Every structure is written in structure tokens, then in C-alpha cells.
Amino acid sequence: MTHLTQLAHVIERNRFLILDTETTGIDRRAQIVQIAMVDAAGRVLINSLVKPSCPIPPRVTAIHGISDADVVGAPTWNDLWMLVKAISAYRDIVAYNADFDIRLIRQTFEQTGAGMSWPIFSRGMGEVVCAMRAYAEHYGQRGYNGYRWQKLGNACMQQNIHIENAHSALGDCLMTLALVKRIVSNG
Length: 187
What we know:
By secondary structure, this protein is of the alpha/beta class. It is built from seven helices and seven strands, in the order αβββααβαβαββαα.
């Protein structure tokens, strides 16, 4: 099944949520500093800063605008993970670059979870669908090894979707929701 077909099935079932995170970076030690989830109607299920156990590098703050000062009073991942698990229970998850967001959830938990095993999406969840891969198939631009991935902002511009609050978890969730609805409705 193609990513686009998988996305269409998830949208049709209408029990999905859109997930996005902002992080301290992209490496194997990076952690979540913001998480958001919206439902199929765009209702905000969670939108929270997250206090990581490591500093946010200035080069990363320059991208998403979240600094160490912003997260001083924010809940930690240990404070939030049960809520994230409850919100996502028995729902399909759509994320733009899903592999990255799921990896960051896992590694944030592993780095801050006091040695506990990773329980977030282990049981009671639906499919995880990558909107970036589905959009690449929809857009159809060929690259070296298959379809060429597009940045979320570029994909939205290509589909005439208003870009607002890019590089905030909630802004990216809402743009991803608009994008997946557009490409699924256009077949």
C-alpha cells in the first residue's frame, strides 16, 4: 500500500489526530521542547511546552523560537507522557515526518523516564502515517531514490495553503491537517 493510500484510509476512518513536536535538535540526544496534537476538526487536544533535561542550543532556538528561558516553568516529559498516551489511545496518528516525531517521543522518554521502558505507543494505538511521504507521492517529483520529500512550508505553498506559525508544534499541526485534507480530497 502506498503512503498516500494509507493516508486516505486513515482520513476516511476519521479517528486520527495530527501530531507535531519541536525539539532541542535532531541528533540521538535531542529531546522534545514542545508538543501539540489536534483532532480531525482542528480542535487542540494538547499544546504544551516541555522542559527538557538538556539545554536548547541557540542555533535551534533560532529555528523554532523556543529558548531555555521559555521552558523554565514548563512541565517535564514525565509530567506529560500519560496525557499524550491517553489522547492518542486507539487513534491513528498523522505527522509530517512521522519517523522523526515518533523517534523523538521515544528518545525523550528514554532520556527522562527514570529508566522505565517506553510505553507511549506500544498498545492500543492505530496506524502511524507519515504525511511527508504521502505528500511526496502526491506531488510526484522524482529524486535519486523515489519521490522527493518536501518541507512542510514548501508543501503548503505548493498547495496554496496559508502558512501560519511555522515551526511551532501547533502551527505545524494545523498546516499538516490542511495539507492532508487537501491532498486526500484531490485524489
